[in-house]
Rhodocoxin
Amino acid sequence: MPTIHYILKDGTTREVDAKIGASVMETAIRGNVRGIDAECGGCCSCATCHVYVDDAFADLLPPPDDMESALLDAVAAERRPHSRLSCQLSVTAAFDGLRVRIPETQA
Ligand code: FES
């Protein structure tokens, strides 16, 4: 079972075991990770699941589609090169050890 590491606003890390096929957002919600509100439930319309993917894992992920990219342009926190909406990231076995940082504006 892959483990996802969520780096919180205070610098601490929460580790949550993920189910294959679940999203990184769903995994965070199941693990009660602070800062992932997911107000739209994962339908790519709220951007409250924004995360910064660690550089070491960025190449593992498929690029954002047009809808995700457009929403990332409107996120509250700064958009960075590895910004992603965690609801759009489906966990695979290759995600084991994935590190994502939650923007400071999402507390
Ligand atoms: S949960 Fe709303 S955009 Fe990801």
Observations:
- The two ends are 27 Å apart (CA to CA).
- The chain has one domain: 3-101.
- The mean pLDDT is 95.
- The domain at 3-101 is CATH 3.10.20.30 (Ubiquitin-like (UB roll)).
